[in-house]
Amino acid sequence: MLAYIVRRILYAVPILIGVNLLTFALFFVVNTPDDMARIHLGAKHVTAEAVERWKAEHGYDKPLFYNAAGTGTGKVTETLFVEKSLALFVFDFGRADDGRDIAREIQARMWPSLAIAAPTFLVGLAAYISFALVTVFFRATYLDLAGVVLCVVLMSISGLFYIIGGQYLLGKLWHLVPVSGYEPGLAGFKFLILPVLVGVVSGLGDSSRFYRTLFLEEIHKDYVRTARAKGLAERVVLFRHVLGNAMIPILTGAVVVIPRLFLGSLIVESFFGIPGLGSYTIDAIQAQDFAIVRSMVFLGSVLYILGLLLTDISYTLVDPRVRLE
């Protein structure tokens, strides 16, 4: 087991290095520091002096890979690649354009994102799997048909409709929950009800239909026929055997949620006024703060790779044959 985990970690290292190099190329080669300065200054006729002054103020006035003016190791270390790219591996994100420490902002904002994403993920996963199992249990009936039609209808509706409709119906019209806002601690629970509900309902259609397809593929296999021949009830067959053997594709689908648990949802946090990492990223894009955007891109890559690693490890718990292979 330990050798399997170490091997998976070693596989992730070159992927993370490649993502870091690609990110550096996009932010400093394709979009040069001179381009960043002109975009940030926002003037049609920006002087060369203004561009150089902006680059010096934000630490973008150094060469990309080699600093001929440096001394000793400074020829390599006093470069944009080391200061802006390699520093990310030790989670040194630097400072934003307004002078605030990015790492401290991330540490403070990840908790509101988790407060929304974690219950949305857990409640949603339980709801989607349960709904899919119910439709499979009543397969080839009008109840199954109604469930499929409902899933298709929900899939056809934009996520913005759920947000705006939920805010108007539950917040403005019925006054059951606040429309937007956030408070830390238990006092902020009332602000999380609507975002979590919207997140669960908006994902019900596509997720439930996906899980229903997985379960329908499993019920026609030999082990299911054997379980039925032994006299097991259909409920036991579905919830014990079919669900257990369908866990690998379910875990695979859950990988994409790992980064969202920390980075939050860009749209949901913006509409509900949640001071999480999603709204932090949106504000950075609007303010053209390249340091924050670059840091969030790298952090998202790290979390996604971590999700892949956790998924590979969970495979060994669900199916020991993966570890043997």
Report on the structure:
This protein is 74% helix and 0% strand. It contains 18 helices and no strands. The protein is globular and about 80 Å long. Helix 7 packs across helix 10 and helix 14 crosses helix 17. The protein is mainly alpha-helical and 325 residues long. The chain has a domain of 218 residues: MetI-like fold (Orthogonal Bundle).
CATH architecture of one domain: Orthogonal Bundle
Poorly predicted runs of 5 or more residues: none
Quaternary state of this entry equals: single chain
Quickly name the level 1 CATH class of one domain.
Mainly Alpha
Tell me about the biggest sheet? none
| Helical content (DSSP H or I, runs of 4+) | over 70%
The CATH superfamily of one domain appears as MetI-like
- Per DSSP E runs of 2 or more residues, the count of β-strands stands at 0
Task: Determine the CATH topology of one domain.
Answer: MetI-like fold
Q: What Rg do the Cα atoms give?
A: 25 Å
Residue share in β-strands = under 5%
Secondary structural class: mainly alpha
Elements, N to C (H/E): HHHHHHHHHHHHHHHHHH
Shape: globular
Number of helices: 18
Gap from first CA to last CA: 12 Å
What is the mean predicted local confidence, pLDDT?
A: 85
